[in-house]
Design goal:
Layout: E1 11-18, E2 21-28, E3 32-38, H1 46-52, H2 55-59, H3 66-87, H4 98-102, E4 106-110, E5 116-122
Antiparallel strand pairs: 1-2, 3-5, 4-5
Amino acid sequence: MEIRGRPNTRWQVSLSYTRNCTVGALCAGRAIGVDVESIDPEFRWQPIAAEFFPSEVIATWDHLSPQEARRGFFRQWVRWEAALKCRGVGFGAADLTYEVALDGLELFDLDLGEGYAGCLTLKPI
């Protein structure tokens, strides 16, 4: 669609949902990704972290209380998922490690209240 001489701007949309929370984002002309997760107190996050995150990230949780370490894991997880969505790929992208996925993107942690972690990512202009 063209509006009075303005160039065609491609709209991007990203959606995410978890228990009792849905987040959506809409952006014109830039790739966008959003993710939200419920912070489940029973979820065994350590094996997932060991498989997917670099040791430097995991080490940042060593000095935290168990609750804060769990929250830290979920914070990083939503950042990664939002980045993958922004790049238009999934976990199957063989060369997209955690570090590569986040590199060069703008990250915005979302304050969704206690019990949730969320992130919005944008490709820079």
